[in-house]
Design goal:
Layout (H helix, E strand, L loop, with lengths): L1 E11 L6 E11 L4 E10 L17 H13 L26
Antiparallel strand pairs: 1-2, 2-3
Length: 99
């Protein structure tokens, strides 16, 4: 199990309605370790989080990009060389044919 500490949140949806949120969080595990990461989570009309074992269905890619754009505009993302040394970035390769 993990306790989640939300550092930043942006959302789409109106007041008093369901909101889809994009959050930057720290996951604090029972074993004493922690990890930072991003998640999508719904908030109910009353403002409480909808617990779904970490799963939130994203209606379409346009909504996901809108949330990520809001996060970028709020200054969440630094330059890659500003990331802490413990962050491991995935290796991205492209074949010569672009496949």
């Amino acid at each position: 199990m993990a306790h989640v500490l939300i550092h930043h949140e942006v959302s789409v949806g109106g007041a008093g309605k369901w909101k889809l949120c994009f959050q930057y969080c720290t996951y604090m595990y029972d074993r004493g370790t922690s990890q930072r990461g991003y998640r999508f989570m719904y908030r109910k009309p009353n403002g409480h989080l909808q617990g779904a074992r970490g799963q939130a269905r994203i209606p379409d890619s346009a909504v996901m990009l809108r949330l990520m754009s809001k996060a970028a505009a709020a200054g969440w993302f630094g330059k890659v060389d500003e990331l802490p040394p413990t962050v491991e970035l995935p290796q991205v390769t492209e074949s010569p044919t672009g496949e």
